[in-house]
Amino acid sequence: MVQDNNNRDDNRKEKIKLIFEQTLQITTGIFFMVGIGGVITHIQGSSYSLDWYTPLSIIFIGFLCSLPTLLLEEVEGGRSGVLRIILHCLSLFIIVSAAGYIFKWYTELSGYISVVIIFFVVYAFVWISSLWMSKIDEAKINKALEKFRDEE
User: Domains of the chain: which residue ranges?
Assistant: First the structure.
């Protein structure tokens, strides 16, 4: 019984860690891309500004986009890895497209195309950074196991 509670607590902590990491990675990627867009617009001689709620909407969408990652990680269901990635990407794309419309990140087709490009760049960034973080965790675990073996 105590073991079950410990496993549930560990599982809950891992889920919270995943949501937190994904939210940070997504919002960092979006802010970076928005910053690059602002610099390019400024260099071209145009004025660039964001609405007061845009940073908050980006953070909210970062959190919202971390939830499908958690849900798809839990649902094994015999689906292949490629199908799960496609479903994940599609669900995030729908969230970002809807949020872009609601928060007025775009008002015309060219703005929507910019949002789509930013989406795919951020999606790739989050995958790469997640893999990198996993490699770091794996290296720490291997180092701890080696240290444990040496002590025996």
Answer: 2-151
The interaxial angle of helices 2-43 and 54-74, nearest 10 deg, is: 140
Q: Report CA-CA distances (Å) from 144 to 13, 80, 130, 131, 137.
A: 21, 33, 21, 20, 11
Burial 37-51 (b: 16+ CB within 10 A, else e): eeeeeeeeeeeeeee
pLDDT in tens, 43-72: 999 888 888 899 999 999 999 999 988 877
Residue with tokens 């809807």, as numbered in its chain: 98
pLDDT in tens, 100-116: 999 998 889 988 999 99
